[in-house]
Structures are given as structure tokens and as C-alpha cells.
């Protein structure tokens, strides 16, 4: 006697399918990739050293000096790029047909994005630590210890936005093009959003454009423990872009059924 399987009777796992085992596997897979580790640890610190001890680094900036301001900015950029690269690994999974397999499971798309973001958060933490260690060894940055720690922690949570961005881009473009889009794109957004160059150095028209870019809000938040300045619209900017990237990534995952 044959029985008919009723898909509606399948038990949906708790928490939308969030699974610590899958999370651990994802993290080990990233940490075993030597190129990823080198990129995570070396590139952000090299960016800080590339700026060098330029004139004016000893001038005061909030609770520290300009060198501390630049260190916080470079930690954000390095962590954002690393987190976005980690999130964009989904593009490779799509090319292998893994996304189609996930669509056959009751895994909630938002939960999947969350697990990807948590893995990217760990990689971003390595980038933040790398920049701060090099900055401390460089001896140029000056700020109280609690401000130093505060900037690092806030920066780490800000990178969740770019982890979601990486997943979103990974679902939109083919695997081999994901970082070709994210790399130059994040660099441009960093210039425009006040990460590399203070917004006061731009014209009024460019500043008004910068206020709407994804980098502006997180940059203000990341430097807030140092500058003690955090406009309300910077927080609104960061929250809005995070919601947009998570929603976009979840939407694309739910629609992605084809092997690319």
C-alpha cells in the first residue's frame, strides 16, 4: 500500500532553520581558505600603513587625534570590505547549484542571510583587530583605551550592513563578478561617504549626496566614541540601508532557483 507525502505536513524547524552546526561549518570553511585569511589580516592593515604618518595627524579630533580618526575609518573600511567579500561567497554557491538545494529545505531566507552575516562578522572582527594592532604598533593614534575599544566594537557591528550587501550582490551577479563589483563599489562609497576624506572638504552639493550613501551612516557611528558627534540622520541612514540589504538578499534568495 503506497502512501502519499504531504509537503504541508513537513515540520518546519524552530527559529526558521537556524542551526549552529551549519554556522560552524560555514565558519570553518572560511577560516581554511588561506587567501581569505591573508586578505582579511593583511589588506586592511596595509591600507592604514599606506596613508602613513602624514602632516596633521597629531591634531586633536574628539577624544583623540587625527591619527585615531583615520585608524577608526580604516578599520571600518577593512572590515566592511572583508565582510562583503565573505557574504559574496554565496555567488560561488549559486554557481555550484547549492542555492537550489537550499530552496528545497524549509530554511527561512532571512535566517540564511543571518548565518552568512554572522560568519562575515567573525571575519570582520579579524580585520578590525588587524588594523588596531598595526595602529597601536605604529604609535601615531592617541585616544583613551575605552574609546579605542568602543570604536572597535561599534565598527564590528556596523559591518553587518556590508555582510548583507555582499550576500545581496552575490545573488544578483555571477560568481566571478561579485568582488569586481564590490571592491570598486565600496571604495567609491568610502570616498563619497566620508571614510577616506572628511565631508567638510567636499562641496555642499556632494555632502548632500553623501548623506544618502550606505557608508555615511556607519562611518559616523563607527567614529562616534571618538568624535562624540552622531547626527540622528546618520543612525537613520545606517538602519535603513541595513534593512534594504537584508530585505534585498532575502528576496533574491527566495527567487533564486536557477543554476548560474
From TrEMBL:
Coiled-coil ranges per UniProt: none
Domain ABC-2 type transporter transmembrane stretches: 21-223
InterPro entries assigned to the protein according to its UniProt record, in alphabetical order: ABC2_TM (IPR013525), ABC_2_transport (IPR000412), Nod_factor_ABC_transporter (IPR051784)
Protein name per the record: ABC-2 type transporter transmembrane domain-containing protein
Transmembrane segments: 36-54, 66-92, 113-135, 147-169, 181-199, 232-251
Membrane topology: Multi-pass membrane protein
Record localization: Membrane
Superkingdom, natural source: Bacteria
Transmembrane as UniProt keyword: yes
Keywords: Antibiotic resistance, Membrane, Transmembrane, Transmembrane helix
